[in-house]
TrEMBL record, chain A:
Residue span of region Disordered: 1-26, 94-128
Compartments, record wording: Endoplasmic reticulum membrane
Keywords: Endoplasmic reticulum, GPI-anchor biosynthesis, Membrane, Transmembrane, Transmembrane helix
Superkingdom to which the source organism belongs: Eukaryota
Source species: Penicillium ucsense
Bias (Low complexity) ranges: 1-15
Alphabetical GO biological process terms: GPI anchor biosynthetic process
InterPro entries with a match to the protein in the record: GPI_biosynthesis_protein_Pig-F
GO cellular component entries: endoplasmic reticulum membrane
Protein name as it appears in the record: Glycosylphosphatidylinositol anchor biosynthesis protein 11
Keyword Endoplasmic reticulum: yes
Automatic annotation (TrEMBL), chain B:
Sequence similarity: Belongs to the PIGG/PIGN/PIGO family. PIGG subfamily.
Domain of life of the organism encoding this protein: Eukaryota
Broad class of the protein's primary localization: endoplasmic reticulum
Gene Ontology MF, one: CP2 mannose-ethanolamine phosphotransferase activity
Location of this chain's protein in the cell: Endoplasmic reticulum membrane
Keywords: Endoplasmic reticulum, Glycoprotein, GPI-anchor biosynthesis, Membrane, Transferase, Transmembrane, Transmembrane helix
Protein name stated in the entry: GPI ethanolamine phosphate transferase 2
Amino acid sequence: MTSSNTSSAAPTPGSLSQAPAEKPSAPPINVLPSQLAQSYSLAHPVVLLGLCAWRFEAVVESTTRELLRDLPWLAALQFVYVITCLPPAGSSFGEVTPGPEDKKRASRSSTGSSAPVRPGKSSHRRKTSAKISWASVWARLMPASLAFGLTTLLATPAIAILLVLFGAPLTTHNVETFLCAAHMALLSSTPLIYVHGVDATVWKEVWGISRPADIVWGSALGTGLGAWFGAIPIPLDWDRTWQAFPITILTGAYIGYAMGGLLSRTPFVYGKRIQFAPGPADEDEKKTN
Amino acid sequence: MGVFNWGWATLFANVLIPVGILIFSSGFFPYKPLLPGLATFDQADQDATLPVFDKVVFMVVDALRSDFVYSNESGFLFTQSLIRSGVALPFTAHASSPTVTMPRLKAMTTGSVPSFLDVILNIAESDTSSTLAFQDTWLAQIKARGDQLVMYGDDTWLKLFPGMFGRSDGTTSFFVSDFVEVDNNVTRHIPDELAQSDWSAMIMHYLGLDHIGHKAGPKSSHMLPKQQEMDAIVNQVYTQIEQQSHLQSTLFVLCGDHGMNDAGNHGGASAGETSPALLFISPKLASLDLRQSSPIEPFDDLQYYRTVEQADITPTLAGLLGLPVPLNSLGVFIPEFLDLWDDQSTRLHVLYRNARQLLNTVQATFPSFTFDAASLADSCMMEPDSGIEGARCAWSRVLRETSSGNVIERDFEALESSLLQFSRIAQNLMSSTASNYDVSRLSLGLLITAVAAVVVFPITYQECKRSTYTGIFLLFLIIGYGSMMFASSYVEEEQQFWYWICSGWMVYLHIRSASSSTTASSSRAGVFSANAGKFAILGFAIALRLVRRWNQTGQKFAAEPDIARAFFPSHRPIFWALFMLTYADAGLRLWRSLPSTILKMGGVTLATLACVFKLNFVANDSPELIVDTILSRIAEGWPSSASLVLQARLIFGGLGGCVLIALALRSRSDENEGPSKLLHEALHLFLMTQSRATNIPLFLVFRIAAWSLSSMELSDMEVTITTMILQYTSFFAFGGSNAISSVDLSSAYNGVGSYSVAMVGILTFVSNWAGPIWWVSAGHLLRGHQEHGGESHNAAALLTFHVAASALSVMAACTALRTHLFIWTVFSPKYLYTIAWATGNHVAVNLFGVAGLSLLERRR
């Protein structure tokens, strides 16, 4: 399950118009350097896993109600996480309408945003140095609201469709599938959108599952992979209630989210891409995560 | 990719695999030594024997589950009144797995526990080694006495007992949709036979109830009327027994050979399948004064009244009819009938003969243990109650009690119970040793298969090294599949593994095509082809999702609604539209791949003929699909003169013609891919003919998937892995599973007039492996036409390694888990399927089939 494919709906028009002028893709991103950001970025997956473990019984008890009830809490936690730890997409908010010229500039600024300094802030600082704090808040709130808006409107339905394509029931359990997709979208897509906005190149890479490994992409990929592995216990004849769809899938997604995020921060994996050799002739292989 | 560039290692490994399988099988399904000849009475037995009955009417109702007779939802109202009045003695007869007709008939007539191999022989029905002509049965005993037997119903009896019956009329169960004719064919003989007095045993075997089960399940609306029909026959027979003087000491046995599960199928070991009803009916039984309440509230485990073993029927009949107990019987006389004899010593003698016969079988199996009084004296210190020591102990008690005191002072009650106890211990002992594994052969088989895997490993490793990630995925697949074979639920739900792996591989293909399209888009093609790739993967994903849901299979989710059995019957126009579309597509492609106009016309005619044949077949086999559609009216108008056999032969002949044309085509240099395309189309039509009607639109879905794959520019190794995964996926999508009951025999007799093992075997294989065979051919087309320089891809080695590794893990699982509860219900069937995968699908289709296709092209 590749959460990355959330983008299927979002980037397609962009990638079409963008195709002739290839631009360099955004480099892997880092967690903000502040003490708070660094430590919370480590604590956040643990908090999520803890929440998952704590609510597991309740989810087994009444799946839909509990998943729905947990949704705002998950959203709040992800909100705190992206605001605290991740560099917001530069001026990506304005990127929806302007022409290619602006876009290029925007992308350049977002490219700069990967520098260890808080980048979104810096670009605004140049404009209005008087309203530093306001700009800072604005620069974070706008991508955040964009992230949550797009997660709800695009990522969740897209993931739900993907879940069905990967074998989720279509004629029954629709509510469960949708809630599962919502959880997975909050885990995987919200940080991606917050960091990258609607940068077409990035989303094209996401669609091709060829982003360089970083905390955001790693946890998104981990979510999908974890959900895929989460399907394993379902056919066992243990007759446990937790074997019902989508409990194991979602549990796998949470675990994959935590592990993917943490793993891809290690220097060993960081910055590497998944790229399969198109043929035996291709020698330009890179390491998978 | 012909035979010649497989390399000696691959060739060698493919010789080793069948050898390993053969040796492992000989250790796993051991030939059980049977005592030859017929049991006879000595003079003492002759004097002490007092038959209660001189005739038996043995009525088998196929798949008569216990609750069909005993519960309060049953239609057997008259039979239930007999139970209440005490003239019918009801039991639940435990039928051990495999619960298919032939092994069950063997159990009921010889009293033995048939080996698992009988399942295969049940499918290859005419196999002569499976007949009981030379085995000791209660039928043979009646015949040996010089009496006549008659038989009406399922012709399995005629195959099992050639020359046994004086008069008979066998019925084949060709169309499962026939609920009426098969039974009327039996019933019409009853009045005549009951009027005659020249027979001692009359056997009737009704198939209709089983057909209803297979077709519509135990809750079908046809079920109650059928039960009432069977009840009326019980009434008819019983009334005659009461009224006719020559029938006055006739025992009437009504039983099922096996039950059915909630889906109406059988073969496995669920409570429903192993719990048929068993009733002994005679006015004489009223003297036993065993009135029981009837009907009873239905309950889940289906064990109504007392549960006896199916094998117990044999010694019980032998005792009641005054016959010697057949030599290899493992049954125990049902003690309820002892009170039919007033004389204590006659009763004891019946039990004693039964016990002595069991002792003989025990001694034949365990020659190193002695059972004489002297050596048994001190063997009972531990009081074991099972196993060989338990049997010795119980026998020593019998000896002690028979030797103590004179005849009058004997404690008959105690002796009776110790004789019965010995018999039961011996029965358990012998039933559990019915499968004695030859561990050294198992190990040798494992070793040889392991060598086969090791031999191809270097080549496989080279292949994998050339494209790392593909190799890693393949290894992940093989290891995952291998370890899965040790868990019974994953064996039962194997389809889930392949669907799951397939979705993972889909992501791989997606990443592959996405990355290649970005690198290539600048140089050639541009936007459109890059996007075509994206749509291709989407098409592939949707096709796969449809395929997964086509037939629900396995155990856990088998009853959930699916496309073939739930959606199509309720949306018949959609089904028929897809059906016609598939045939139209097949005809169109035949048209395109044939060279000249006349031949093109011929191709279209052939496709039309195939379509008409399938429609006729559906009208016979599953009429519920055709009612209330336009087709039903058209079908009525069809000439019924051309039989199905003839139509099928015409189609096969036409397809053979296509193959000849393909052979002729290859001499023309201008036709580049003509021959293999044409062969693929011919095969396509052949596989459609051999598939269930509801599966036919799947071929259209496969076309879409294959088209998506062809636009992805896959490397040879990727094509090999893709088609390998799709072979397994499609096998399960067609409704296959690892259970014996899912073998589809409906198309096994297409074009076959008289039974022939080879033809029916091949057709059965093709109709069950239609999906895999299709993908082998499609894979060949996908792979074939790229001219690749340098070292070529060795698909055979990769496939051989996979097959060797999976056979190895299945064998290891069967060896390690041979004492597991599920060994005969889950692991052994899986082993049988593995044999078919390894020999039929791998060696015959994947290697020789593809080698043949390659040779055909090579000549150019």
